[in-house]
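Tokens as discussed.
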């Protein structure tokens, strides 16, 4: 199969890049390792209150509605580059595509398979359409362990565990890496209580619950409702190897807080922070409005623990350096953006890494360190949804210039 561009990664950056290339008359094939398209944005809730909050989450649905109708874009899910070679200016990638193992046309969503599955997370649902999938990384049978519990209990025969993978050889003149980011693992900060103290969630988990409309605000014994947001968890922290600002966290937390406040007006919301970063247009105005409804505390908690009533307690030092212990119904850790391993074969060309460990050089250049290979979006560094789309437009322009030079024999 011959295509102009092979796009690795089916998140918002890969989708927008495929669209921009299509508008330039360039054919592309997009591969995504997950069994569905959308990446992290597929878990993001629309944060509109009475007005649009410019979070960009709705842009994913725009691309998903128009890309399948575009003739010069092909998308493969459950796919990764298995081997790689180069002949002159042509790249040859052997793609391994693994099916999800679930025939969703037969699935009636009875939930029996999820109840009997012994491997946590091996069965999961797409946040886009709630279709059921099997994780090849977590399924015991995929690891060579004899287990067919889900297939045996399914009354509809919707689960097929026998592998029916296929290989495709893709030739392309250019490759675009849009592999996104890895959310910071909040368990690396045990003092903040994640997975240890009930009532402590990450911002990504809260976003996902709000998208699924599965978020119920907990209520304390005295009837008060309170939420705390802790900023810069895994950002601006040399000890975590992330001595940079993740750029999106302040905006995400404030939008999530405003959304909850609009639905639960009596909820007390407190935001603990070092500095509020305003990378977005007109965000200062939003911040000023938010300060009227919420409390901002310029202090980073030293510990989050379980209180006597079971609620999480935040321990921090106030402006006069006195120790404060304040209980909350819910604590949200605003986790940062970490570099992601693009999961490429060893034969793939060596790529540049910038000082923070992301692919590419410093600045906005989309070159990845090898002629014909480009990088865009959060794979290159922390970016918002709109920032990823903007850079995909730049990448499409640079890729077209590169392909035009090849055609001219330069």
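Sequence:
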């Amino acid at each position: 199969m011959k295509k102009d561009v092979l796009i690795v990664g089916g998140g918002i950056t890969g989708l927008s890049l495929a669209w921009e290339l299509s508008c330039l008359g360039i054919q592309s094939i997009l591969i995504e390792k997950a069994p569905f398209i959308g990446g992290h944005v597929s878990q993001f809730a629309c944060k509109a209150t009475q007005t649009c909050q410019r979070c960009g989450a709705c842009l994913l649905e725009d691309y998903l509605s128009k890309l399948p109708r575009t003739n010069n874009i092909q998308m493969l899910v459950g796919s990764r580059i298995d081997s790689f070679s180069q002949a002159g200016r042509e790249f040859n990638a052997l793609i391994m595509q693994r099916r999800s193992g679930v025939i969703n046309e037969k699935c009636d969503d009875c939930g029996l398979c999820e109840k009997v599955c012994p491997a946590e997370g091996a069965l999961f649902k797409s946040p886009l359409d709630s279709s059921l999938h099997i994780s090849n990384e977590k399924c015991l049978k995929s690891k060579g362990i004899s287990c067919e519990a889900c297939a045996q209990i399914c009354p509809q025969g919707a689960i097929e565990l026998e592998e029916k993978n296929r290989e495709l050889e893709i030739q392309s003149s250019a490759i675009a890496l849009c592999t996104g980011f890895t959310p910071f693992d909040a368990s690396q900060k045990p003092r903040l209580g994640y997975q240890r103290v009930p009532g402590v969630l990450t911002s990504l988990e809260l976003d996902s619950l709000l998208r699924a409309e599965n978020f119920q605000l907990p209520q304390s014994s005295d009837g008060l409702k309170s939420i705390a947001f802790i900023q810069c968890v895994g950002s601006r922290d040399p000890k975590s190897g992330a001595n940079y600002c993740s750029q999106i966290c302040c905006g995400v937390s404030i939008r999530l807080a405003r959304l909850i406040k609009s639905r639960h007006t009596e909820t007390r919301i407190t935001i603990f922070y070092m500095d509020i970063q305003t990378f977005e247009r007109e965000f200062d105005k939003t911040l000023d409005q938010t300060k009227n409804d919420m409390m901002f505390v310029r202090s980073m908690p030293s510990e989050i623990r379980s209180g006597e009533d079971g609620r999480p307690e935040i321990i921090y030092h106030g402006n006069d350096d006195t120790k404060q212990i304040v209980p909350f119904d819910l604590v949200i850790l605003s986790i940062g953006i970490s570099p992601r391993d693009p999961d490429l074969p060893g034969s793939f060309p060596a790529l540049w890494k910038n000082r923070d460990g992301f692919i590419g050089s410093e600045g906005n250049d989309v070159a990845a360190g090898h002629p014909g290979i480009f990088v865009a979006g959060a794979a290159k560094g922390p970016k918002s949804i709109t920032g990823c789309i903007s850079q995909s437009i730049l990448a499409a322009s640079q890729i077209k210039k590169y392909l035009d030079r090849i055609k001219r024999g330069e």
